[in-house]
Write a structure and sequence with these properties.
The chain is an alpha/beta fold. It is 31% helix and 25% strand. The protein has a 7-stranded mixed sheet with strand order 5-4-1-6-10-7-11, sandwiched between helices. Strands 2-3 form a two-stranded antiparallel sheet. A hairpin with a 5-residue loop joins strand 8 and strand 9.
């Protein structure tokens, strides 16, 4: 395993358009804390993670009030109009202010149920992989491709398919260069691994957990609440 310093980066500048509501989903209360607070806590005391940076929207109004004293335990940087731009701003800030952080671990602000076991597994395997690694789960459901009228037009072979999760772990300089290359070519990125794939890297897939849910719809909060209460 590499002994490089690992910096956790949490992009939280998104607007959560699929979720809706007056309060951004990363600031919604669940199990006594904001969703984002749970995401931060997953990294706060891990021995391999040296620092945490959170990327915020320029007009963010909730961060300090929603997180309370926890807001002082992390650095913040202003994001961009897309996730890729926000992550790139975060990487630039880390490189400038934390030159010893040669690995970066990117995690969704709306994934509050990351377990210590999953994080340890990712770090153990990812730090030994030249191209980094991501948490993911093999696809278990039958997949259907929809037509224009929302009708089934095909069943998709699910063998070999995995659903990507976060965190995703990469060397900081490699990820920054990959995002820049994809941006220059007009490539739309759905996650950080897709930037690495664009430049020919092959990140490792590390088994995640079904509990590492991303809050996307209002019904997800009840599931998150139950899992967080069960895990304490």
């Amino acid at each position: 395993m590499s002994t490089g310093h690992v910096h956790a980066l949490i992009p939280a500048a998104g607007r959560g358009t699929r979720y809706g509501g007056a309060v951004l989903k990363q600031y919604l209360p669940v199990a006594g804390k904001a969703v984002l607070a749970h995401a931060i806590r997953a990294f706060q005391f891990h021995p391999l993670i040296t620092d945490i940076t959170v990327v915020l929207a320029e007009d963010d109004q909730w961060f300090e009030s929603a997180l309370g004293s926890l807001s002082a335990a992390v650095q913040t940087v202003t994001g961009g109009t897309t996730r890729a731009q926000s992550v790139r701003n975060g990487l630039r800030s880390i490189a400038e202010n934390h030159p010893g952080s040669n690995w970066v671990l990117i995690h969704d602000a709306a994934r509050p149920c990351l377990s210590p076991d999953s994080l340890d597994r990712l770090l153990e395997q990812g730090l030994s992989s030249a191209d980094g690694a991501i948490l993911a789960m093999p696809v278990g459901d039958t997949l259907k491709r929809a037509g224009e009228a929302q009708e089934i037009v095909a069943t998709v072979d699910r063998s070999g398919l995995w659903a990507a999760q976060t965190p995703q772990l990469f060397r900081l300089d490699a990820l920054a260069a990959a995002i820049d290359s994809a941006h220059e070519q007009g490539r739309e990125l759905t996650d950080e691994a897709s930037a690495m794939e664009f430049v020919g890297a092959r990140p490792k897939l590390v088994m995640g957990s079904s509990e590492n849910i991303k809050v996307t719809h209002s019904s997800d909060l009840a599931i998150v609440e139950a899992w967080l209460q069960r895990s304490g």
